[in-house]
């Protein structure tokens, strides 16, 4: 049942090229995006996205896509806050709920609140026969297949895939991408399964560095732009299964507090493809290194070259379009958590105190 893998988590990590490919083939056919016609982004003024845990971090990533590519304002909230704050929702607001299980109690309660207040309720779910799927006006499956490991991996990247396709569709409908530009973006997206395979093949390097991480008591994760939510996801995944205290920060926040934590014993993991913001990230890294911090840089070969001397460890990924980077960089984030947990000997698939689906508050 684990298909030759020791754990469901490693099986599910390895499945990502194929399930992301499935989601792509479902939503993009004959070069055209297939989404329900009732989902009309020309009529939407604001998107409110609500979820918990990793699904929330997928929403936070998608905010960058919807806002930067489709120029659509997005609010993102954790369901437990949203449901009790009972935020006013203005006309033209569509509420979007993301959930792997489709049964998370807080997300479902938030959906029920929004039903009376939003123009339309959309859900992005893995389990099609679930409450969050049934109670939405439009429900979009992520087609990840059954996810058993408590730590969500393929659920996250399939959520990202569907949300990115939605953002591209929105950008086209709202006149921010021409048909040609959209086709180019979709072509790039189709390279993702292949790129993910390359990232998966780098697992022995991740394993080697994870053995060193396993002795740390605190680890910081940094990222800028859409890599910021991924830094949060890397920290969440590591906490969940290795029980090492980890925190994710926007790189630019370093000076505003977390740099006080940096010392020789605190590894700092930086997700930084060589994009437009790379220079800024390098200077953040230098600030860490100047204080004796050990930087694990996850980048592409151009980034590794630019980073220069003094970096503790580097993991190299293929070069990738900016918008697609969160999908690709998710793989080493998951592998680090997995191999660090293995090195510590914790129960990877059934971490202490956690349930796969949080159906009670
Ligand atoms: O089933 P859901 O996507 O609604 O679950 C949300 C969170 O409980 C879930 O993502 C949790 O954070 C995972 N254990 C993360 O790995």
Strand order of the largest sheet: 4-3-5-6-7
| Distance linking N and C termini | 31 Å
- The biggest beta sheet, please? 5 strands, parallel
Radius of gyration: 20 Å
Task: Give the bound compounds.
Answer: 5-amino-5-deoxy-1-O-phosphono-D-mannitol
The share of residues in extended strands comes to 15-25%
Q: What is the string of SSEs from the N terminus onward?
A: HHEEEHEHEHEHEHHHHEHEEHEHEH
Helix tally? 14
Low-confidence spans:
none
Q: How many distinct beta strands? A: 12
The amount of helix comes to 40-55%
- Give the averaged pLDDT, no decimals: 96
Word description of this protein:
The chain is α/β, with parallel strands linked by helices and 361 residues long. The protein contains 14 helices and twelve strands. The protein has helices spanning 8-14, 16-27, 53-68, 79-85, 105-115, 131-134, 154-173, 179-189, 192-201, 203-213, 227-242, 278-290, 301-307, 325-344; strands at 28-29, 32-33, 46-51, 74-78, 93-99, 120-125, 138-141, 218-223, 245-250, 267-271, 294-299, 313-316. Helix 3 (53-68) runs antiparallel to helix 11 (227-242) and helix 11 (227-242) packs parallel to helix 14 (325-344). 5-amino-5-deoxy-1-O-phosphono-D-mannitol is lined by residues 52-55, 99-101, 104, 107, 150-152, 240, 357-358.
Task: Provide a concise account of the structure shown.
This protein is an alpha/beta fold. The protein contains 14 helices and twelve strands.
């Amino acid at each position: 049942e684990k298909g030759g893998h020791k754990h469901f988590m490693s099986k599910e990590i390895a499945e990502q090229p194929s399930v992301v490919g499935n989601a792509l083939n479902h939503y993009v056919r004959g070069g055209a995006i297939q989404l329900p016609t009732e989902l009309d982004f020309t009529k939407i003024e604001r998107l409110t996205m609500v979820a918990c845990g990793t699904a929330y971090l997928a929403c936070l990533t998608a905010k960058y896509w919807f806002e930067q590519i489709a120029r659509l304002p997005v609010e993102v909230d954790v369901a437990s806050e949203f449901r009790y704050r009972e935020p006013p929702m203005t006309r033209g607001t569509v509420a979007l709920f993301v959930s792997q299980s489709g049964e998370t109690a807080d997300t479902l309660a938030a959906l029920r609140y929004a039903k009376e207040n939003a123009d339309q309720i959309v859900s992005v779910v893995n389990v099609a026969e679930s409450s969050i799927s049934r109670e939405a006006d439009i429900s979009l499956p992520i087609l990840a297949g059954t996810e058993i490991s408590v730590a969500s991996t393929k659920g996250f990247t399939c959520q990202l895939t569907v949300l990115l396709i939605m953002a591209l569709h929105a950008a086209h409908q709202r006149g921010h991408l021409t048909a040609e530009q959209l086709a180019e973006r979709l072509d790039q997206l189709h390279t993702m399964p292949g790129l993910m395979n390359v990232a998966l093949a780098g697992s022995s390097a991740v394993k080697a560095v994870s053995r060193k991480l396993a002795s740390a008591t605190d680890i910081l994760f940094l990222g800028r732009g859409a890599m910021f939510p991924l830094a949060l996801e890397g920290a969440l995944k590591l906490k969940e299964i290795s029980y090492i205290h980890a925190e994710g920060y926007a790189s630019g926040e370093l000076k505003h507090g977390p740099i006080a934590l940096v010392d020789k014993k605190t590894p700092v993991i930086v997700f930084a493809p060589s994009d437009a913001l790379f220079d800024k990230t390098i200077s953040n890294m230098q600030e860490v290194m100047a204080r004796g911090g050990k930087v694990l840089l996850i980048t592409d070969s151009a980034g590794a070259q630019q980073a220069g001397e003094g970096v503790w460890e580097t993991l190299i990924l293929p070069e990738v379009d900016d918008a697609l980077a969160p999908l690709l960089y998710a793989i080493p984030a998951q592998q680090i958590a997995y191999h660090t947990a293995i090195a510590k000997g914790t129960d990877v698939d059934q971490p202490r105190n956690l349930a796969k689906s949080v159906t009670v508050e």
